[in-house]
Write a structure and sequence with these properties.
alpha/beta; TIM Barrel; Double Stranded RNA Binding Domain; 3 domains; 8-stranded parallel barrel; 18 helices; 16 strands; 20% strand; binds 3-methyl-2-oxobutanoic acid; binds zinc ion
């Protein structure tokens, strides 16, 4: 008997992460290049195969971020998006040139709706544009991925023709986007199956799927695509992305891992123990807050409230848990550090949590840690994440908080005094307001000279307990532009001030 014949042939599902492109381009997803770099390092640790780092033609900032990521990432491919236009393709090529493994992702819509209303072009012209773009891309880069945008609403015969032609030009991956999140799982299955049966040279390319979540079926559609033969999945961490978002990486990966019976012979190279850490990073750096009931990474995803469930889980975990929380890197919040902990222990713990702060940022974070440890007895990993991410978020803050004072009560009009530091100089302002938060915000406006309008304000506790850090996330409208800010403190007024200054500093940074 030949043992090898009995062995299951394993096929890898390539994880193409587009958090930094489709996720970042959604309102609220916007990141600075330093933040993008931190996310890219974390995605590398997570083990994604391809990082779609941005859309270089979109802005000089995007170009810079893609090229920084291309220089820094050692494992996997770094990809950049381009329309079928020469300047786009050249920008994507130039930005990814320093990467060890660069990839260009070229896209063009193929649906009748897009041809008629967006391009006002006939099929033959679209066909020619796609072919010429891939030909140009292929001259510059050996790894070309092509996406017929809105594929799921395209006429199948035209779709087959385009796919066959771009593969002839050298496209190695054909991505099938459900751009509007319109399709449903059986349809996606049939589409991939039909492409495999009707495009004569399809075996020369890898089929990918890229699903949006407008009808809440992005993950189901992606997995259906996999069952039909797609071997690459586009996804984002926490499912962030345009409108309702993209297929979520953690759900795809854990479904493939958990349901081996369904996805037999398939695996990903994701280090699932890094999932929770990556999710927290995206939660903390963007405006997309993970809902408590979110699959895999939500706060309640592994907590059992009902007595019957708790009792059964204690007897045998698999009664109500289909996954081990430790497999996705969820550990119960442990007491890690206290006010007597030294800089070394602090730095080591941050490193273990995946942060790479330079000396200056580490020193500042340590000062913040000591301030917080003075007020808060128990410091948990989630507290440390907030402290470290505060340092990553702002590059060089123009305004820093020195001190503040607030009076407020049922019978007094709220009043606030705020002292800020601008380039080494202390400046202060005072104001009354409808409440203490309103008063401090008005006092800050007096100092900065901006007349900011508060567009959104959210407060959440980072950990449990009365002395938990409160994190404020807010949006300010200044000069018709929206800037978001975050700040954390054991004092919620201070957290609000920090968030407000974060947003103002982002405006100054821009
Ligand atoms: O949703 C979409 O169609 C896209 C393409 C650029 C692939 O994001
Ligand atoms: Zn998309």
């Amino acid at each position: 008997m030949n043992d090898a014949l009995d062995e299951e042939i394993m096929e890898k599902i390539i994880i193409f992460d587009t958090t930094l492109r489709d996720g970042e381009q959604a309102p609220g997803g916007s990141l600075t290049d330093q933040e993008k770099l931190e996310v890219a390092f974390q995605l590398e640790k997570l083990g994604v195969d391809v990082i779609e780092a941005g859309f270089p033609i979109a802005s000089p900032g995007d170009f810079k971020a893609v090229s920084k990521i291309s220089k820094a990432i050692k494992k996997g491919a770094v990809c950049a998006l381009a329309r079928c236009l020469k300047p786009d393709i050249e920008a994507a090529y130039n930005a990814t040139k320093p990467a060890r493994h660069p990839r260009l992702h070229i896209f063009l819509a193929t649906s009748k709706i897009h041809l008629k209303y967006k391009f006002r072009k006939a099929e033959d012209e679209i066909f020619r544009i796609a072919v010429e773009a891939v030909r140009l891309g292929r001259k510059l880069c050996s790894d070309i991925e092509f996406s017929p945008e809105d594929a799921t609403r395209s006429e199948k015969d035209f779709l087959y023709r385009v796919i066959e032609a771009v593969i002839k030009e050298g496209a190695k991956t054909i991505n099938i986007p459900d751009t509007t999140g319109y399709t449903y799982p059986q349809e996606m299955y049939s589409l991939i199956e039909d492409i495999r049966n009707n495009v004569p040279n399809i075996n020369k390319a890898i089929i990918a799927v890229h699903c949006h979540d407008d009808l809440g079926m992005a993950v189901a559609n992606s997995l259906s695509g996999v069952l039909a033969g797609a071997r690459q999945v586009h996804c984002t961490m926490n499912g962030i992305g345009e409108r309702a978002g993209n297929a979520s990486l953690e759900e795809i990966v854990m479904a493939i891992k958990t349901r081996r019976d369904v996805f037999s012979g398939l695996y990903t190279d994701i280090n699932t123990k890094e999932i929770f850490r990556t999710s927290r990073m995206i939660n903390n750096l963007t405006d997309f807050v993970v809902p408590p009931n979110k699959a895999i990474v939500g706060r309640n995803a592994f907590s059992h409230e009902s007595g019957i469930h708790q009792d059964a889980v204690l007897k045998k975990r698999i009664t109500y848990e289909i996954m081990d929380p430790r497999d996705v890197g969820v550990s119960s919040s442990q007491l890690i550090l206290g006010k007597h902990s030294g800089r070394h222990a602090f730095g080591d713990r941050l490193k273990a949590l995946g942060f790479r702060l330079n000396e200056e940022k580490l020193n500042k974070a340590f000062v913040r840690f000591k301030e917080i440890a003075d007020k808060k007895k128990n410091i948990f990993d989630d507290d440390l994440r907030i402290i470290a991410e505060d340092e990553i978020r702002v590059i060089k803050p123009l305004w820093r908080l020195v001190s503040f004072e607030v009076t407020s009560g049922t019978k007094v009009k709220p009043n606030a005094k705020v002292m800020l530091n601008k380039k080494g100089k202390a400046v202060s302002g005072a104001s009354s307001g409808d409440g203490p938060v309103d008063a401090v915000f008005k006092a800050i406006d007096k100092v900065t000279g901006y007349n900011a309008k508060l567009d959104d304000f959210r407060l959440e506790a980072v950990t449990s307990g009365k002395d938990a850090l409160g994190q404020v996330s807010l949006k300010l409208k200044i000069k018709d532009k929206i800037f978001s800010g975050r700040g954390a403190s054991t004092d919620i007024i201070e957290a609000a001030i920090r968030a407000y200054l974060d947003a103002v500093n982002r405006l100054e940074y821009k």
